[in-house]
């Protein structure tokens, strides 16, 4: 007997959520408030049933090299999660030296059963604006020597992706995959971490430690403005704004996100003289999101313009789904405006906004030329997998 892929994915998402709740207790508050907001929110269920929305999470992880990303891809494939889209966060107003993709189910039925997704970023060590040749060589040596995943776990993941997971193996497999994303208690080399922090806090979080970890786990809410108010009333410091499109009276589009500020977490350090001591790091935060209808390419072009002129949103987007559908701005199943296709992906500008607003200070890239040639095709080649174009998936979902 094998376990259904979606059941394995749901078990993985739930196990990560339990682990993250013990690591970051404020996350549990966020989930409680999100659940309450969803319960209190009048919804017609068109953007997802209360049950799906309340169970829905996305995670974020960060790795250092193409080889590590390839292992992540093998691991997630066992859960029916495949790479979709390419995000270059170096292009943001305040650049972060990573390129990213999102691992998620690609079929409508699979998303409906369990939509778990993980935004996955890889350190762009080839980019000379962030890494001098000397630092690049040392980072790559450090990354080459660490092992994020037990090779036997990756072999097992490949077998499960090909043949399914025997029921008897499921619990243990999920437990070991989850443990691979736990926050490490190993001492952090203080000087190395500080050197990388001078380049970017994200570079230090990725390559300053010998393991990877969940950076955040994000619940979905139906009313993010109401969530923001309730969290603030509880005395939790949120970042200044909700990222993404403004609240409007018309159909919600794409994705709106906000977060509470990263909290200081106890970590252990090793000083230059070898002594080990306690300290803290502020890297992990509590994000929350609301999802709307997926925009077509034409809708997305219009969105990008509207974002520069947010007070006049209604000059760019109509007030009803019927008009959105008629103008070909958003995806609806079978063209029926009562059946929006939910946006399942991410927004690089908000992603960079979330990154940025959670850093106490971040370095600026130098003026050197970008010598990396990162792109969707580059990433697909580097991990040896097709990376889905999100628009293809939305076209299919709408047809
Ligand atoms: C990922 C940031 C992007 C989102 O929801 O846009 C992201 C990270 O901080 O590693 O998770
Ligand atoms: Ni996120």
Give structural notes:
With 399 residues, the protein is α+β, with helices and mostly antiparallel strands. It has a single domain (2-366, 377-398), classed as 2,3-Dihydroxybiphenyl 1,2-Dioxygenase, domain 1, CATH 3.10.180.80. It is built from 16 helices and twelve strands. The strands form four sheets. Strands 3-4-5-2-8 form a five-stranded mixed beta sheet. A three-stranded mixed beta sheet has the order 7-10-11. A two-stranded antiparallel ribbon has the order 1-6. A hairpin with a 5-residue loop joins β10 and β11 (276-281). α1 packs parallel to α8 (167-179). The chain is globular, with a radius of gyration of 21 Å. The chain starts with a strand and ends with a helix. The protein binds 2-oxoadipic acid and nickel (II) ion. Residues 60, 62, 119, 121, 215, 257, 287, 346, 350-351, 354-355 line the site of 2-oxoadipic acid. 2-oxoadipic acid binds at residues 60, 62, 119, 121, 215, 257, 287, 346, 350-351, 354-355. InterPro entries: HGLS, YdcJ_bac-like. Pfam families: HGLS.
Topology:
Blueprint: E1 2-3, H1 5-23, H2 25-40, H3 50-55, E2 57-63, H4 66-77, E3 82-88, E4 98-104, H5 108-113, E5 117-123, H6 133-145, H7 151-163, E6 165-166, H8 167-179, E7 188-189, H9 190-199, H10 201-207, E8 216-219, H11 224-233, E9 255-260, E10 265-270, E11 276-281, E12 286-291, H12 297-306, H13 321-326, H14 348-357, H15 376-383, H16 390-398
Parallel strand pairs: 2-5, 7-10
Antiparallel strand pairs: 1-6, 2-8, 3-4, 4-5, 9-12, 10-11
Helix pairs in contact: 1-2, 1-8, 2-11, 4-7, 9-10
The structure holds 2-oxoadipic acid (OOG) and nickel (II) ion (NI).
Residues 60, 62, 119, 121, 215, 257, 287, 346, 350-351, 354-355 line the site of 2-oxoadipic acid.
């Amino acid at each position: 007997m094998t376990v259904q892929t979606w059941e394995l994915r749901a078990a993985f998402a739930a196990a990560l959520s339990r682990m993250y709740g013990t690591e970051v207790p404020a996350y549990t508050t966020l989930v409680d408030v999100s659940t309450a907001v969803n319960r209190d929110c009048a919804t017609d269920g068109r953007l997802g049933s209360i049950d799906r929305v309340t169970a829905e999470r996305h995670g974020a992880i960060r790795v250092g090299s193409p080889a590590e990303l390839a292992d992540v891809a093998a691991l997630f494939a066992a859960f029916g999660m495949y790479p979709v889209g390419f995000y270059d966060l170096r292009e943001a107003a305040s650049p972060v030296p990573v390129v990213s993709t999102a691992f998620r189910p690609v079929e409508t039925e699979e998303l409906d059963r369990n939509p778990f997704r993980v935004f996955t970023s890889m350190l762009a060590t080839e980019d000379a604006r962030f890494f001098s040749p000397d630092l690049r060589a040392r980072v790559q040596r450090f990354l080459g020597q660490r092992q994020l995943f037990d090779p036997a776990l990756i072999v097992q993941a490949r077998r499960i992706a090909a043949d399914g997971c025997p029921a008897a193996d499921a619990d243990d497999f999920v437990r070991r995959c989850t443990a691979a994303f736990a926050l490490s208690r190993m001492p952090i080399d203080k000087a190395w971490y500080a050197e990388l922090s001078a380049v970017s806090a994200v570079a230090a979080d990725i390559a300053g430690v010998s393991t990877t970890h969940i950076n955040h786990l994000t619940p979905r809410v139906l009313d993010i403005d109401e969530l923001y108010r309730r969290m603030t009333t509880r005395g939790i410091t949120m970042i200044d704004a909700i990222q993404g499109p403004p609240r409007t009276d018309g159909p919600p589009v794409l994705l709106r996100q906000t977060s509470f500020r990263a909290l200081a977490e106890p970590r252990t350090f090793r000083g230059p003289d070898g002594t080990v001591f306690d300290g803290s790091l502020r890297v992990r935060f509590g994000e929350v999101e609301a999802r709307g209808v997926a925009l077509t390419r034409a809708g997305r072009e219009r969105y990008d313009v509207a974002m520069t002129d947010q007070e006049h949103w209604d000059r760019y987007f109509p007030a009803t789904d019927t008009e959105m559908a008629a103008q070909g701005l958003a995806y609806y199943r079978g063209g029926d405006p009562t059946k929006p296709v939910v946006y399942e992906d991410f927004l690089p500008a908000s992603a960079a906004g979330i990154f940025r607003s959670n850093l106490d200070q971040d370095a600026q890239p130098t003026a050197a030329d970008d010598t990396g040639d990162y792109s969707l095709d580059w990433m697909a080649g580097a991990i040896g997998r097709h990376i889905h174009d999100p628009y293809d998936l939305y076209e299919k979902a709408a047809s």
